[in-house]
Amino acid sequence: MPSPLLFDTVSDYAEGVAMVRLKSRIGYLDGEGQVTIEVADDNVTTAAPYAESLAVARVGDFFGYLDRTGHWAIDVQFSLAKSFSEGLAVVKGGTKYGYINPEGEWVVEPQFDLAEPFVDDRALVKLADRYGYIDPAGRSVVAATFRDAWSFSETLAVAKQEAQYGYLDLTGTMVIPAQYDGAFNFSDGLARVRQGRQFGFINPDGTMVIATNLAFASDFSEGLVAVLQDRQWGYMDQTGEWVIAPQFDYAADFSEGLAAVQQQGRYGFINPAGDWVIPPAYTNAGPFSEGRARVQLENRWGFVNRAGQLLTGSGFKDQANW
Q1: Confidence label for 318 from pLDDT (cuts 50, 70 and 90)
Q2: Segment 276-294, tens digit of pLDDT
């Protein structure tokens, strides 16, 4: 086993870098393992991946945003902050949620009891005990009348009417009637739904494509879905046919052509044919992103490339601060 896996905590790669933490030091590695961004403020305790060139970071009980040099772009001041999406970020000011721009200016004043990032120019918000949607100017586009709702995904959003779930379009019209005991986001053109304790999949017309006879399933990714059968995980295609027979203790979604799976207590990566590309050697593993995946061995984290090579070269070993 190549060594060492150096870090206490890492994130997935995003926008060319991945967050790493070693003891009290936090920085970001590029794809070659170089620490290209070192967080300047020693008081930062956690930091998120970059999104739209800004990264949420925490000092004590409050949050701000780092720029690509590791310095504060938006000062620590919010009791909660989420990553930027479509040019705006959810933050909590006082007891309410609103939205700021990359300069830290309020675009939508804090007024919501909960709020989610923008997707397709729509953001899910909560007023009292009801959910609705706003546009980027803060105007209500779908009235807050739903007892439960999710953010949009592939132009449709889960919403609850009475005791069951259906799907809204961007205008707020319930285009797939509320008829399911549970419903989840669309992904790869299909959405997971639940009737009783069984799961299946529908298309955007509401047609049942895979019958609700699955004990459990994840969401589709890259044309395959992880499905649990008799306490073992395998993968089905979009017709409901087994492509990789159930044989794993755990199976994650495919990402960049590979999926992390667990067998006999160890994680490795398989391809869509079910062949091992990276043998199971790790105690934990994340998805591939930008050609790298985070992996854990015992209590340390690092990264592997698609060939299974650990990113352990001169990049961080030769830097005094690390």
Answers
A1: low
A2: 999 999 999 999 999 999 9
Q: What are the pLDDT digits (tens) for 111-131?
A: 999 999 999 999 999 999 999
14: tokens are: 């995003």
Residue 235's Cα: distance from chain center in Å?
20
Tell me the per-residue pLDDT of 234-263, one tens digit each, with 9 for 90 and over.
999 999 999 999 999 999 999 999 999 999
Contacts of 253 (CB under 8 A, 6+ apart): 218, 219, 221, 222, 226, 259, 287
pTM here is 0.94
